[in-house]
Specification:
Helix content is 39%, strand content 20%. It has a single domain, classed as Rossmann fold (3-Layer(aba) Sandwich), CATH 3.40.50.450. With 164 residues, the protein is of the alpha/beta class. α3 packs across α4.
Length: 164
């Protein structure tokens, strides 16, 4: 199973700690972590996953290691040359998404998850107060371990609902 972790590059210490804990828990549960491969939340999550022996995939915005080097904890970088357009690949590569903190890039990834009906768990991330928006499609949690539990449960439910 692959779980996408999304979040900002310029996040504070609390978000980075949560991201590292999420990465650790994803690895403990035998899932592979997918992210945008850069710094901040992405690096912290990868660091946590690798510390537990887990696997990490970084969907990189540039065309080469020289153009956009992955954070040091990305095991498998995928260079796209797509810039922020890669965000849809980050989202669609996971069977569920965990959003931690984040800026506008994270907001776009949340939108892609909602558009493509990829289950999403929010850990201190964007809130929406917009008429007609289905706010409950983002499962809100405050604990990193619960975030991973919820993401895996939602991914398994999604798997079970697919026609064979």
């Amino acid at each position: 199973m692959m779980i996408s972790v999304i979040g900002g590059e310029a996040s504070g210490e609390a978000a980075l700690g949560a991201a590292e804990a999420v990465g650790r828990e994803i690895a403990r549960r035998g899932a592979t972590l997918v992210c945008g491969g850069r710094g901040g939340v992405m690096e912290a999550a990868c660091r946590g996953a690798r510390a537990e022996g887990g696997h990490t995939i970084g969907i990189m915005p540039g065309r080469s290691h020289d153009e956009t080097p992955p954070n040091p904890h990305v095991e498998f970088p995928v260079f796209t040359g797509l810039g922020f357009t890669r965000n849809v690949i980050v989202v669609l590569s996971g069977e569920a998404v965990i959003a931690i903190d984040g800026a506008y890039g994270t907001l776009s990834e949340i939108a892609f998850a909602l558009i493509h009906e990829v289950p999403i768990v929010g850990l201190d991330t964007w809130d929406f107060d917009y008429g007609g928006h289905d706010e409950d499609r983002i499962v809100r949690v405050s604990d990193p371990v619960v975030a991973v539990e919820q993401a895996i449960a939602l991914a398994e439910k999604r798997r079970a609902s697919r026609p064979e």
